[in-house]
Each structure stands twice: as structure tokens, then as C-alpha cells.
TrEMBL record:
GO terms assigned for molecular function: DNA-binding transcription factor activity; sequence-specific DNA binding
PROSITE patterns hit by this protein: HTH_ARAC_FAMILY_1 (PS00041), HTH_ARAC_FAMILY_2 (PS01124)
Keywords: DNA-binding, Transcription, Transcription regulation
Protein name, UniProt field: AraC family transcriptional regulator
Native source organism of the sequence: Paroceanicella profunda
Domain HTH araC/xylS-type: 212-310
Record-linked SUPFAM superfamilies: Homeodomain-like (SSF46689)
Length: 327
């Protein structure tokens, strides 16, 4: 019987779990410019007509976004969108003075440029750690330069999210939830397929065919007593070659990564499934609650109960669904 290959990207997305998606549009004309403050969650904008310059807070260069291009902003940094490359713009709060889900803001009469945007929050338990290896900006270009169907699927998902929010048809809330998952999956796939120089962490690991096999084995059976040698065997490399390759791509040793992943997965099980610490510890290979708690504190700096409690606190009512501000 063929071995069932575990899918580590799906496992990562299970921990991220996008939620509270909102979407809106921007219709602009003339020499327009808008400044967006730092934002919660992950944003994705798709240019449907015309083009604009994106200037990210703290960045020295601008990025041109043409018709059909899509951009992901995973770290919540402020940015400016403009027709002619301005580094400052009208505050987004003024342009989108009465934001609502599915609404379109019009600036300077509109007609020259149209963009659809979506923003969704991610689970607090693991998102900061897992997103740390992503760059500040991921651009998906339109046309023949795409290396897969991911770019087209991203643009389709953003457009469908906006349509669902405008129509308010029965089932829209669940449809938006599923579409936001599709959006995140395709964005991550595109980033992995690009194989960008200099990126590290789990994204770099998933881009490498050897290390990806080891991650699939590791994350598919967290309770197993893995060693560097047994993971190297799964990867199809010698022990030394595997250890060096893993550390270079991921930035930590295989055993340290395994421990981190066990802690994050156990925390998610405690938080969402309501497991006791002892049961969650057993699921990820620890024979005693005390040993697991000690490892958890060494890895994440606090006890499992405190980590879950602090990371799972609901947002204040005023910011539980922060407005998208149009893009």
C-alpha cells in the first residue's frame, strides 16, 4: 500500500485559520493618493482597472501594480497607494468616511482606477510565528509570468468575496469564510512556487522537495520519537546533509523546529478542542504533563495555560471587525 503523504501546508493553515473577512472597493480618478495606517490582519488587493504605485511604510522603493496584479500585505504595515508615486496621501479614514462591507469608495470622480481589497484576521495562537518568514509584500503579477494558476485564483477569490458582501445572499457569511481560506491557500502557494531568494522558515522548508518530505512526516506523526537520522531518511538525505540543509533553510535545527511545532499544535488543540494539557501533551509525544509544560515554557516563554489564555482573548468590541478602509 502506498504511503499517505501528509500535507504540511494544510497543517500550517489550520493554525492560521483566517476569520472576520471584510472586503470593499476603490474607484479613483486623476492624480489621487491615499495613505493607509497600519492594519490588523492580512490584506490582499487586486487591481481590476488601471494601475497604481504602492509605497510601503519604511521602504525605500515603490512597487507598480498594473491591471490584473494582486498584492498581499501580511505584516500590517502602513502604506500609500497613488496614481503617480506619491509618498503621502489623503488619510484613508477620510476617503472611506463611512466604510461598510462590500462598499466602494469614490475618489476624485473615479473612472481611471478600480481596485478590490479583502482583509481578514488570523488566529493569534500561531500567526505571528508562522508569518514571520513571509516578506512585507508579495506581488502576484497578471499574465504569462505567473508560474501557476495561483495568481488567477487569487484574483477570482478577491472578486467573489466582494460580490458576496455586496449581495448579502443567504449563505454569504459561510461563503466568505471558505473564500478567505482559498485566498490564503493560493497566496501561500504562489509564494512557495516563486522560490524567492533569501526567504526562510517554514515557507523555505516547504519550497524544498527534500525538507518538505521531512516536514510532512514530522507533522503527520507528532507523537513519534523522531531523531535527526529518522527525519533524514524520510527526506532522502544523509544525516549530515539533512541537518545542514534544514538549518540553512529554516534557521533552526530539526529538533528545535519539531519542538516548536509540537507546542503550537498542542496549544491549538487545548484552545479549540478543549483538551486538557495532559491529553494534548500525549498527542504530541510527551509522556507526562510536567515534561510537556517544561518544554512549552522553554520554547514559548510561558506555560500552556497562560499562552492559550493570553492569545485567545477576544478583541475589544471597537476593533473586533476593524473596517477595511476600502483596500
Amino acid at each position: 500500500m502506498a504511503e499517505v503523504l501528509f500535507d504540511p501546508l494544510s497543517d500550517v493553515l489550520e493554525l492560521l485559520r483566517p476569520h472576520d473577512c471584510v472586503a470593499a472597493g476603490l474607484d479613483a480618478g486623476g492624480n489621487w493618493s491615499i495613505g493607509y495606517a497600519p492594519h490588523a490582519g492580512l490584506k490582499c488587493n487586486a487591481v481590476m482597472k488601471g494601475g497604481c504605485w504602492l509605497t510601503l511604510e519604511g521602504a525605500g522603493s515603490r512597487i507598480w501594480l498594473g491591471e490584473g496584479d494582486c498584492v498581499m500585505l501580511p505584516h500590517g504595515k502602513g502604506f500609500v497607494l497613488s496614481a503617480r508615486g506619491a509618498r503621502q496621501g489623503e488619510p484613508a479614514e477620510a476617503v472611506h468616511s463611512t466604510p461598510s462591507h462590500g462598499a466602494t469608495a469614490t475618489l476624485r470622480g473615479g473612472g481611471d482606477f478600480f481596485m478590490t481589497g479583502a482583509r481578514f484576521l488570523l488566529s493569534g495562537l500561531a500567526s505571528d510565528i508562522l508569518l514571520a518568514s513571509l516578506p512585507d509584500v508579495v506581488v502576484i503579477r497578471s499574465g504569462a509570468d505567473d508560474r501557476s494558476d495561483s495568481g488567477e485564483t487569487v484574483r477570482w477569490a478577491v472578486t467573489r468575496i466582494a460580490a458576496e458582501l455586496r449581495s448579502r445572499r443567504p449563505g454569504s457569511a459561510r461563503s466568505i469564510e471558505h473564500l478567505s481560506h482559498v485566498l490564503l491557500i493560493e497566496l501561500m502557494r504562489y509564494h512557495l512556487e516563486e522560490g524567492q531568494e533569501g526567504h526562510f522558515g517554514w515557507t523555505a522548508a516547504l519550497s524544498d522537495p527534500y525538507i518538505r518530505r521531512a516536514l510532512a512526516a514530522m507533522q503527520g506523526d507528532l507523537a513519534r520519537s523522531w531523531t535527526v537520522a529518522s527525519l533524514a531518511e524520510k527526506a532522502g538525505l544523509s544525516r549530515t546533509a539533512f541537518a545542514v540543509r534544514f538549518a540553512r533553510l529554516v534557521g533552526q535545527t530539526p529538533m528545535n523546529y519539531l519542538t516548536l511545532w509540537r507546542m503550537l499544535w498542542a496549544a491549538q488543540r487545548i484552545d479549540r478542542a478543549g483538551l486538557t494539557i495532559a491529553v494534548a501533551a500525549a498527542e504530541v509525544g510527551y509522556a507526562s504533563e510536567s515534561a510537556f509544560t517544561a518544554a512549552f515554557k522553554r520554547t514559548l516563554g510561558q506555560t500552556p495555560r497562560r499562552f492559550v489564555s493570553r492569545q485567545s482573548k477576544p478583541l475589544p468590541v471597537t476593533s473586533a471587525r476593524p473596517p477595511l478602509r476600502g483596500a
